[in-house]
Amino acid sequence: MRKLYLILCFMLPISAFAGQVTMQNVRIWAAPDNTRVVFDVSGRVEHKLELLSNPDRLVVDIKNAKMPQAIGQPVRADRYLNKVRSAERNKSDLRVVFDLKKNIEMRSFLLQPNRQYGHRLVIDLYDENKQDIATPLITQADNNRSKDVIIAVDAGHGGDDPGATGPHGVREKDVTLQIARNLVHLINQEYGMKAVLIREGDYFLSLRNRIGKAREHKADLFISIHADAFRDPRVKGSSVYILSNRGASSEAAKWLAERENAADLVGGVSLDDKDDVLASVLLDLSQTASLEASIGVADRVLYDLKKLGKTHKKYVQSAGFAVLKSPDIPSILVETAYISNPEEEKNLKNAAYQTKLAKALLSGLKGYFTDYAPEGTLLAAAATRKYVIVRGDTLSGIAQRYSVSMNTLRDSNRLKNDRIRVGQVLNIPTI
Ligand SMILES: [Zn+2]
């Protein structure tokens, strides 16, 4: 049985579609909870989408178009797509059929040419009833007092937004993901700290969804990793940014913020909705506190980056990055290096250098959170009380005296066994 779910038509003046359009390329980006299909086209197109069942498939009819080359197939891990095929229709039109693995929902939109690409037709596929569910801004009070400090690690750009590209073709989206993965790995080896990788592969995530994911995980910090670019290839060094409400602190910062924020327009969907009214109210209430924390973390991170080499600026910069506009989570943006500088481009794709960068970032984060551990975290507990071992002490005796479990005591002191020595300093958790 044929079942028609949804038809989308873009009714535009005929003159806009004069001449046949060529489909130059089809790019498919599989994300954990959606798949984005991007058609690179030679001009504006008129298209129609239709979902059919038995078997599930998505039919895309494109008016007055042709496809000279075969379409690349989706990866096997793609949650929604099996196979893609295309055929000519009505002599002048093109039909592309996607065989689906399951029932889906979708949306489509056209994008104007930008710096990297020409005209594009974008189709987003996602699970039924699961489009951009707004995450509540106010998180429930957490009863679990013995929790880790959660760091949301965000690799800038991704998917059809490559970010900046170096003189030898190294792409920002690739190096940011590698550095982010390194950092997550390092953080997860630390006592009392846990990392969440916001973008896990090569796909596009809107800024709103990035923040949403950090909030879902109740992150204590959001760190967005980027690589800078400038028209002068001599410019180099890393920079650390925090959000500025009052506009960018320098002309370069303003220029950069515009470029980084432009990425979100790729989604083609306005970010305005009711949530933003609530957001702006909450922003006023909580921004002061989170901004203070952001400055603190940013300072420490910059301090540790300086050990790697000369930083671009001596001080933390502020700019109006949309990705940092989370009222309740302290957020920083790190431009790790200038990908437009040939030497730094080479460094950025070097695995050993990526690890070095990640270690510097970890050192900054750890330094900050050891000194300013959020209330109720293991790090806060570990920082509260110290005990110096004297002759005759036993671990079980100390545990009993301070009413903490042996396990907690072992964990917060990273003890492999119960042996202690006179003069040793133990952290006594307050949990
Ligand atoms: Zn960037």
List keywords for this structure.
431 residues, alpha/beta, Immunoglobulin-like, Aminopeptidase, Membrane-bound Lytic Murein Transglycosylase D, Chain A, 3 domains, six-stranded mixed beta sheet, five-stranded mixed beta sheet, 9 helices, 28% helix, 25% strand, elongated, disordered N terminus, binds zinc ion
General form? elongated
* Strand content range: 25-35%
Largest sheet: 6 strands, mixed
For this structure, the CATH topology of the largest domain is Aminopeptidase
Poorly predicted runs are 1-17, 131-145, 246-252, 263-286
Secondary structure class reads alpha/beta
Strand order of the largest sheet: 11-10-12-15-13-14
Total strands: 17
Overall domain count: 3
N-to-C order of helices and strands: EEEEEEEEEEHEHEEHHEEHHHEHHE
The assigned CATH architecture of the largest domain is 3-Layer(aba) Sandwich
Our measurement of the CA-to-CA distance between the termini, rounded to an integer number of angstroms, reads: 61 Å
Give the cofactors and ligands.
zinc ion
Provide the CATH superfamily of the largest domain.
Answer: Zn-dependent exopeptidases
CATH class categorisation of the largest domain = Alpha Beta
The number of helical runs is: 9
